[in-house]
Design brief:
Largest sheet of chain A: 5 strands, mixed
Radius of gyration of chain A: 13 Å
Order of helices and strands of chain B: EHHEEHHEE
Helix content of chain A: 25-40%
Distance between the termini of chain A: 38 Å
Oligomer: heterodimer
Order of helices and strands of chain A: EEHEHEHEH
Shape of chain A: globular
Strand content of chain A: 25-35%
Largest interface: A-B, 28 and 28 residues
Number of strands of chain B: 5
């Protein structure tokens, strides 16, 4: 009973917007890593949009931690948008929000300069 | 007094089937009158308990099941998730730290399941028996 995640990438000049759709679980790891590989050549500033993600479990949280680890090595940033109140609570509980800020909209996320590396937050 | 009602689910030890337990628990919790945010807490907690049972307990052995008991009481919902394995690794019960997971390449980035369950449910108990497997009992109170 595998779950599916698809990612639509919008590569902009200063950042890459990853629109996630589906479920963020263990099965999503490969899809996320492939998307990150596509983006990283052009931009280390990533905005992940969770508006169409209905289910995130602990393995999915581990996938996001993996993304932060990779971005930290490259001096990049991860910004999160479209996160539901429940997952905002979970991300805060886990400590993800110390390393990736949550914004209310894509506009708000891209308005803030991405010059602060993720690891120094 | 309301009669206690028990629903028993037997799930294949395969990732993804935790969604069946989540759906059932959601329907029951809605009927009992739980709020949306408490139902979201319940869904995450039951999902993590089932994933632990599938992966660590039953080691994804399709020949054995994960048993989920949903016990409806007047003012609370009790959820018991049982596997037939030899016990969930001790690491799973430690409080994980994100800084360790980010900075130590050898540390597994996973291991958040029990942490989330403890933080989201009102009561959590677990019993580990090397012969009988692990049983996690979670309770969520109905606040009217």
């Amino acid at each position: 009973l595998k779950s599916d995640l698809s990612i639509d990438i919008e590569q902009k000049e200063k950042y890459a917007l990853l629109n996630l759709k589906g479920e963020l679980t263990l099965f999503a790891e490969e899809t996320v890593n492939e998307a990150m590989a596509v983006c990283m050549g052009k931009s280390q500033n990533i905005v992940m949009n969770f508006a169409d993600v209905e289910y995130i479990n602990s393995a999915g949280i581990a996938v996001i931690i993996g993304v932060i680890t990779e971005l930290t090595k490259k001096g990049g940033t991860l910004k999160l948008v479209g996160v539901s109140d429940h997952y905002k609570k979970i991300f805060t509980m886990v400590g993800l929000t110390q390393y990736a800020n949550i914004y209310n909209s894509i506009e708000e996320a891209i308005a803030e300069p991405s010059d602060t590396p993720t690891h120094s937050r | 007094m309301l009669m206690e009602k028990i629903i028993e689910l037997k799930l294949p030890s395969e990732l993804g089937f935790e969604r069946v337990a989540m759906s059932s628990a959601t329907e029951i919790a809605k009927k009992m009158g739980f709020s949306k945010d408490r139902i979201d807490d319940l869904k995450t907690a039951i999902s993590e308990a089932c994933i632990n049972a599938i992966e660590h307990g039953n080691k994804k052995n399709v020949n054995i099941k994960v048993v989920v008991l949903l016990t409806l009481k007047e003012d609370k919902l009790e959820i018991t998730v049982k596997d037939q394995g030899k016990g969930i690794p001790f690491e799973e019960y430690k409080t994980p730290k994100i800084t360790n997971k980010l900075n130590n390449p050898d540390e597994n980035k996973r291991g958040w399941g029990m942490f989330l369950i403890k933080n989201l449910m009102d009561e959590v108990e677990y019993e580990v028996d090397p012969n009988e497997g692990t049983s996690v009992k979670m309770v969520i109170h109905l606040v009217r």
